[in-house]
Amino acid sequence: MSRAGRLRDRLTDGGYAAGWRAIRLLPEPVARAAFSTGGAFAARRGGRGVQQLRANLDVVTGGRLDDAALTDLTRRGMQSYARYWQEAFRLPTLGTERILAHSQMHGRVHLEHARAQGRGVVIALPHSGNWDAAGVWLVRWLDGPFLTVVERLRPESLYRRFVEFREGLGMRVVPLTGGERPSATVLREWLATGGITCLLVDRDLSGAGVPVTFFGRTTTMPGGPALLAAQTGAVLLPAVCRFDGAGWRFVVHPPVPVDGPGRLRDRVTAAMQQVADAFSTTIAEAPEDWHVLGRIWPEVGPGDRAPGTP
Questions:
Q1: Would you give the distance in Å from CA 156 to the centre of its chain?
Q2: In what order do the strands lie in the sheet with 147-150?
Q3: What does the pLDDT read at residue 179?
Q4: Which pLDDT score, from 0 to 100, does residue 10 have?
Q5: Between vectors from CA 46 to CA 68 and to CA 243, what angle results, nearest 5°?
Q6: What does the pLDDT read at residue 175?
Q7: Rounded CA gap, 218 and 163, in Å?
Q8: pTM exceeding the 0.85 threshold for the entire prediction
Q9: How many CB atoms lie within 10 A of CB 2?
Q10: Domain 3-289, CATH
C-alpha cells in the first residue's frame, strides 16, 4: 500500500475512534439532536448515496409520492440512518436492560418453536432499523452468542473495532472473506449444532445471488441463507428491525420452507423469494427505516424515478 493509502487508512480509523469516544461522552439528548440534524443536512446536500436512497424509496412506495413527499421521506430516511449510527456509537453505554425494556419482539413464537425442536436457525434480515439492538435482545434471550458474518472493512484496524464492538455485545463474528476458515464452513458447523445465525441479505454484494422480485422489480439476493438452512436442517426465518418511538421493534416472520422435491437451486430461489416478500411487507410499513444507500435494482440509479410518477 502507498504512503498516501496508509495515511488515509489511519485517518479513517482515527476518525471513527474519536467519534466513538466523543459521542459516548455527550448527553444523550444532545447526541440524538446532533445526529438528527446531521441526517437532515446530508439529505439537503443530496449526495450520490442520498440520491440513490431517494430512488430506492420511490420504488418502495410504488412511485406514488410527489417530489415534495419523496423529499420528505428521504430526509426522514437519512435521519433514521443517522439514528442507527448514533445508537451504534452509544449502544454499549445504553445498557442491556434499557434495550430490553424498550424493545418489542413480534413473532417470537417462531424462534421458540425452532429452539424447542433443537434445530439451528438462520435469521435473514434487511438493512433496517437497528439490527445491533436486535442482537442485544437475541443474546439475552439465548443466554449465549449467535453467529454473524461481517464484510471485511479497510483499514484492518477499523474492521477490528467493529468486530470488538459486536463481540462486546455478546455476538460471535466471522469475516465474510479472509478468515482462518471459509465463513460458509463455520456457519454450517454452527447451525448443525443447533446454533443461530443472523445474516443481512437485502444487498447482493457478490453479484452471484439468486433472482427475486422485490417491490415489483427484479433484483438478486444472496442464496446463502436458504442454502445453509437446506444443508443443515435449520429453520429459515425472515426478520425486519425498525424504530418505534424511542425504542425498537423486531418482526420475525413465519418459517420459509427449504426442503421438498425439485432441484436444490430451485428450492433456494423459491425460498429467497419468500424472504423478499416478507421483507417487502414489513419495510413498507416504515420505509424511512430501510437504510440502503446503494443500488438494489440494476435499472434504478441515483435520482431515477419510477415510471409514471408525478
A1: 21
A2: 103-106, 247-252, 235-244, 121-125, 196-200, 147-150, 172-175
A3: 72
A4: 58
A5: 70
A6: 81
A7: 33
A8: yes
A9: 7
A10: 3.40.1130
Q: Find residue 220's DSSP bridge partners.
A: 211
Lookup result for grid cell 439514528? 83
The whole-number pLDDT of residue 310 equals: 42
Tell me the three cell numbers of residue 220.
438478486
**Cell (9 digits) for 95:** 445498557
- Bridge-based pairing of strands 210-214 and 217-221 is antiparallel
Question: Angle at Cα 295 formed by Cα 63 and Cα 221, nearest 5°?
Answer: 100
**Residue 52 has what pLDDT?**
97
**Is 276 in contact with 258 (CB distance < 8 Å)?**
no
Distance separating alpha carbons of residues 191 and 92, to the nearest angstrom: 27
Residue with cell 496508509: 6
Radius of gyration of the chain (CA): 19
Task: List average pLDDT for each run of 10 residues in the chain, which is 310 residues long.
Answer: 51 57 78 93 95 97 95 98 89 84 95 94 97 92 90 64 79 80 92 95 87 96 96 97 95 95 94 98 97 94 69
Q: At what angle do helices 224-232 and 264-283 cross, to 10 degrees?
A: 120
φ/ψ of 297, rounded to 5, equals -105, 130
